[in-house]
Design goal:
The complex is a heterodimer of chains A (314) and B (104). Chain A has 314 residues and is α+β, with helices and mostly antiparallel strands. In chain A, 40% of the residues lie in helices and 15% in strands. The radius of gyration of chain B is 15 Å and the shape is globular. Classes of the chains: A alpha+beta (314), B mainly alpha (104). Chain A: It is found in: Mitochondrion inner membrane.
Chain lengths: 314, 104
């Protein structure tokens, strides 16, 4: 039924289209004929037609219709050929046949399912990538080489296997650094007491001086005595400090034109940087967050890390 | 403690820091308390009594002395590093300015 409807529609389009009207002719048996283009220019009023379908007759030979008469008279072909071709033509619904329609549907369905399958594959791949991607696409952190409060040269590799909470400050800081370092001590205790992994040490607090001219190893060691016993203090040469500050995108600046011995304060950005046991940046916490907020956020990151198969050194 | 001339400047440790902060807060509180007293007894001109104006204005210094906050000022400046005093004073000045803006 549907096929017949499509056929009727297509035949409607064909008959109504002005171009087609001149080229395609329908005879009294509702069969379509394509006008012989060769004769069109000479006498378009003549209904000199040739068949769309093959011109074979019952014997297999070609049947050619010569219309010598004028004005609408048509030579009727032999009856058996006519019947055979009529039957064949009846199954040709407009320009479509069963075969071509079937081929069309099969191809269409094939393409549809193929694209659906490919799209699904791509979506899955993307989901997998997102899940596996480590948190912290920001390029913060990187290799460093500094001197700790015991005078030992340490690099970033020495801290792999544990989470790190890094804070940049200076010992002559009026009140912000001490407050932040106290906060860091609190966070360290909360995290290390929560996560029961081996010896219990999940996170190490690190203080990096951005005032190496005044913050020698001695000064840093004395300074740290007031804070968490696990806190690591790092200092170094001007170049070493400048390099690590750059890799952490830390802003810091001394006042210009300083007299020797003159007091000064270092202006610097105030953040805690959380690094995971693989040395990758995870998150940054601003001054506005308190110890509880930071701890719960770090807790979540630690869980995420362990879930993805990360290992914390014991 | 209030200034250092050596290249190896030792920063104040926790106890010293805490003392400095306490004296700072005492001094600032004193100034805040005497501000309404001073402004009420004035001819209507509202003076801003903050650490910066105290430093710069002699007239205000006289008032502060009269209302017994001068001693606190001296104690505060003695126990904190010079750079810290400057920093705290500037911050207090900004804080009071903001408060005034908000109250308007």
């Amino acid at each position: 039924m549907l096929i017949k409807k499509i056929g009727n529609l297509s035949s409607l389009i064909i008959t109504k289209s002005p171009i087609i009207i001149n080229l395609v002719h329908r005879n009294q048996n509702n069969q379509y004929y394509l006008r012989n283009i060769r004769t069109l220019s000479n006498n378009s009023s003549h209904s000199f037609n040739s068949r769309i379908r093959n011109n074979k007759n019952a014997n297999g030979g070609k049947v050619r219709y010569n219309n010598t008469s004028s004005q609408g008279q048509q030579q009727t072909p032999p009856k058996n050929v006519k019947i055979e071709e009529t039957i064949r033509d009846r199954y040709a619904v407009g320009p479509a046949t069963w075969k071509s329609l079937l081929l069309f549907l099969v191809t269409g369905a094939g393409l549809f399912f193929y694209f659906k399958h490919e799209k699904k594959k791509i979506l899955e791949k993307r989901k997998e990538e997102l899940a596996n991607k480590s948190v912290g696409k920001a390029k913060i952190g990187g290799p460093f080489e500094l001197i700790n409060q015991d005078g030992k040269l340490v690099t970033d590799k020495d801290f792999l296997g544990k989470f790190l909470l890094v804070y940049f400050g200076f010992t002559h800081c009026p009140d912000i650094c001490p407050e932040e370092l106290d906060k860091m001590s609190k966070v360290t205790d909360i995290i290390n007491n929560n996560e029961q992994i081996g010896s219990g040490k999940v996170i190490i607090p690190i203080f990096i001086s951005c005032d190496p001219e005044r913050d020698s190893v001695e000064v840093v060691r004395k300074y740290l005595e007031d804070f968490h016993k696990d806190m690591v203090g790092l200092t170094g040469s001007h170049e070493q400090v400048s390099k690590v500050a750059k890799s952490y995108r830390v802003y810091y600046s001394k006042p210009p034109k300083l007299q020797p011995g003159e007091e000064y304060l270092v202006d610097h950005s105030i953040f805690f940087y959380l690094m995971n046991p693989d040395g990758e940046f995870v998150d940054a916490f601003g001054k506005n967050l308190d110890a509880e907020q930071i701890s719960s956020s770090i807790d979540k990151h630690v869980q995420d890390f362990l879930k993805k198969g990360g290992v914390i050194k014991t | 403690m209030s200034s250092s001339t050596s290249t190896q400047s030792i920063p104040p440790l926790r106890s010293q820091r805490n003392l400095c902060w306490k004296l700072r807060d005492d001094y600032f509180e004193c100034l805040e308390n005497i501000t309404p007293l001073i402004n009420n007894s004035n001819n209507g001109d509202k003076l801003i009594i903050d650490p910066i104006s105290v430093q710069n204005d002699e007239k205000i210094q006289e008032l502060v002395k009269r209302f017994n906050c001068w001693k606190k000022k001296e104690e505060y400046e003695k126990s904190c590093m010079t750079s810290w005093v400057e920093y705290f004073n500037k911050r207090r000045h900004l804080e009071l300015k903001q408060r005034e803006l908000l109250n308007k």
